[in-house]
Write a structure and sequence with these properties.
The complex is a heterodimer of chains A (257) and B (185). Chain A is of the alpha+beta class. Chain A has two domains: 52 residues; 129 residues, Phosphorylase Kinase, domain 1 (2-Layer Sandwich). Helix content of chain A is 47%, strand content 24%. In chain A, the strands form three sheets. A seven-stranded antiparallel β-sheet of chain A has the order 3-4-5-10-9-8-7, with helices on one face. A two-stranded antiparallel ribbon of chain A has the order 1-6. In chain A, strands 2-11 form a two-stranded antiparallel sheet. In chain A, helix 2 packs across helix 3. Chain A is elongated, with a radius of gyration of 43 Å. With 185 residues, chain B is an all-alpha fold. Chain B is built from nine helices and no strands. Classes of the chains: A alpha+beta (257), B mainly alpha (185). Chains A and B meet through helix 1 and helix 2 of A and helix 1, helix 2, helix 3, helix 4 and helix 6 of B.
């Protein structure tokens, strides 16, 4: 045990001495390095007084090219670094800005309508409609129209459907129908010439049809049929009913006098 | 975007590399000319030196100082020596291979570290082959690691280590020789 402690002590002592020697030699080398650098500077000073430097034009051109290339690559690196540094801040700024604008648009009616109108013009997802002047004619009514109804109405509704509600606003008038199975149909009349209507035509079956020789659009998507056409006002019938029945309903629209 | 452009346009007019060239180019050329004794070769060496400096420009903090002056001289001198050796066509082997390994000389323990040794160092270091003295300076004055030294001297890390080992051995031998002469006197 005593021998073991003694040998460990000897080992530690040797290691410490070796480390100290290394440090001493490193110090000598540091001193030597400093002397060498000092000598270089001194020699250089002397040489400066003796020789002149008159580089050839070709050499000057080579050096200018080298410096320009280096500067260019440094500038690109610099811009890249700065871009990477500021990109998250810019992203956060735009995120906050877009978030704020969304909130403002969502909470202010006028802005919301403007924004919606903008979206309507994106043809891939929505189809936009604008009103123009026109006229129409009809047949007999097979349901009870609200007594104070003062606009157009469909003279025909598919069998089994009855009026469950109606609303007459300045811009938009709606009549809601429902049958015993809970299927609904909505007839809409957009009274303002500034009105835009949105119909979801994304991945829908869309076809052009004629309603009394007037071009109309028939949209079918997931069992829901919609027909939109213009005739003095913009009309829209949509519901879960047979396509032919809805076309018939559209053809029957006439003005309540 | 405007802020961004303003930052880019605010770059200093003269780049650091250009500053180094204007400040130290002439003295570097003189060092190369002294070794190569040929204007064209000296210009080639200078051009090569600036390619190397551009790759290690981050190591230069202040352009107009002695530390940088010695640093660029070390670079140009090593390039010039390489060109000189290639011209002499002594051998296709790298420097470390063609040099004779110093005979097993005196060890560190045999050195007497005293004032005489430190006084002699300024002159004895001049007797050390330049590439040995330079690598000692890069390691112990500029405190670069072997990877950085290899990049500056365009040699492999292994060769940088070998050169450093030989430089140390040569230095010990030089100092011990000096001490021997002093003892005999």
């Amino acid at each position: 045990m005593t021998e073991q402690i003694s040998s460990e002590y000897e080992l530690t002592k040797t290691q410490t001495k070796e480390k100290a020697k290394e440090k001493m030699f490193d110090a000598i080398l540091e001193y030597a390095a400093a002397c060498h650098v000092e000598n270089i500077i001194e020699e250089n000073k002397l040489a400066e007084e003796v020789l002149e430097f008159n580089p050839s034009p070709e050499f000057e051109y080579r050096m200018k090219k080298l410096i320009a290339e280096h500067d260019r690559s440094e500038k690109i690196k610099h811009i890249k670094n700065r871009t990477l540094k500021f990109l998250p801040k810019v992203a956060i700024f735009f995120f906050v800005l877009i978030g704020s604008l969304t909130l403002v648009i969502a909470s202010v009616d006028a802005l919301r309508i403007r924004a919606i109108n903008l979206i309507v013009d994106i043809k891939d997802q929505y189809t936009g409609f604008t009103l123009e002047d026109s006229s129409d004619k009809t047949h007999q009514i097979n349901y009870q129209l609200p007594p104070d109804w003062n606009g157009y109405y469909p003279n025909y509704v598919p069998e089994g459907f009855t009026v469950i509600g109606a609303e007459d606003r300045t811009v938009l008038s709606n009549i809601y129908f429902e049958d015993s199975q809970g299927r609904t149909i909505r007839f809409s009349q957009y009274s303002s010439t500034n009105t835009d209507l949105r119909i979801d035509t994304e991945n829908a079956d869309v076809q052009q049809i004629l309603i009394h020789d007037i071009e109309a659009l028939l949209v079918e998507k997931q069992g829901l049929v919609g027909i939109v056409w213009e005739n003095e006002y913009l009309f829209y019938i949509t519901g879960e009913a047979d396509k032919a029945e809805l076309i018939k309903m559209a053809e029957s629209v006439e003005k309540n006098i | 975007m405007l802020f961004f452009l303003a930052m880019v346009l605010n770059e200093p007019q003269r780049s650091k590399l250009e500053e180094v060239y204007h400040r130290h180019g002439p003295s570097m050329y003189r060092v190369a000319l002294r070794i190569l004794n040929d204007e064209h070769l000296a210009q080639d060496a200078l051009h090569e030196a600036f390619i190397r400096i551009s790759e290690n420009l981050g190591k230069i903090n202040e352009v107009n100082c002695n530390r940088t002056r010695a640093y660029v001289v070390i670079i140009i001198r090593n390039i010039s020596i390489d060109i000189y050796r290639r011209r002499k066509k002594r051998s296709g082997l790298p420097l470390e291979e063609i040099e004779k390994f110093p005979e097993s000389g005196p060890s560190l323990e045999e050195l007497v570290i005293d004032n005489t040794m430190f006084d002699a160092m300024v002159t004895k270091i001049k007797e050390l082959p330049a590439h040995y003295a330079d690598i000692i300076a890069l390691k112990y004055f500029y405190h670069y690691d072997y990877e950085e030294i290899a990049l500056i001297l365009k040699i492999s890390v292994k060769n940088a280590r070998i050169r450093m080992y030989r430089a140390k051995q040569s230095l010990i031998r030089l100092i011990s020789q000096e001490q021997e002469v002093a003892n005999n006197d």
